[in-house]
Write a structure and sequence with these properties.
Blueprint (H helix, E strand, L loop, with lengths): L2 H4 L1 H17 L17 H19 L15 H15 L8 E4 L2 E4 H22 L8 H21 L14 H8 L9
Antiparallel strand pairs: 1-2
Length: 190
């Protein structure tokens, strides 16, 4: 594991815990709310994140991809469980070795972990903001998230997953800089 990857297991666990806490508090009447991730409502984001985290746990364990995609209808409780399973899977040092199938195809396992952290942190924050919760992570997890976002930002913008960078003061917390680098406004309010 390289230096950046050494921070991943702890940051993934911390963000997974924050996602689980956020998801567990989402009420049924909040599922139609808009999120900072413009293409998703709360319900759609739960489906996306839960499916991604299920795939992430499988990728960390180097399990083959299922032949067909399972229907995704994730409840807040199942997203919390998926976050915990993904963090547990990425807690194994062997998960970072070699390659794995994740997302669009085969990739280095360490990069799949980077994408997992980015998904947990950014979409966890999206869910928290949309539902009036706080998404608090340490400065260390924020720095790891910033590193992950910076690593994938160019490709994410090309694919339309990130918007143009939002200016954030250089002295802002690392997580706020990660949000800005992903095209999110850290001050977003629905």
């Amino acid at each position: 594991m390289n230096t950046q990857q050494q921070a991943l297991p702890t940051a993934i666990r911390e963000c997974a815990d924050a996602v689980a806490a956020t998801a567990s508090g989402i009420r049924g009447d909040q599922l139609g709310e808009r999120t900072p991730c413009e293409k998703f409502t709360v319900a759609e984001l739960l489906d996306h994140l839960g499916g991604t985290l299920t795939s992430s746990a499988r990728a960390a364990r180097k399990e083959p991809r299922p032949d067909e995609a399972a229907a995704s209808d994730m409840s807040p409780a199942s997203v919390a469980e998926s976050a915990n399973r993904a963090a547990a899977a990425w807690g194994d040092p062997g998960a970072y070795e070699g390659t794995t199938e994740f997302g669009p195809g085969e990739m280095p396992a360490g990069f799949a972990a980077t994408v997992t952290l980015e998904e947990l942190a950014l979409h966890g924050w999206d869910l928290a903001r949309a539902t009036g919760r706080t998404f608090a992570i340490s400065e260390e997890a924020g720095r790891a998230t910033l590193g992950a976002v910076e690593q994938i930002a160019e490709q994410a913008r090309i694919r339309g997953s990130y918007g143009p960078p939002v200016p954030v003061p250089a002295g802002a917390p690392a997580f706020h800089r990660a949000l800005g680098a992903s095209g999110r406004n850290p001050e977003w309010a629905g």
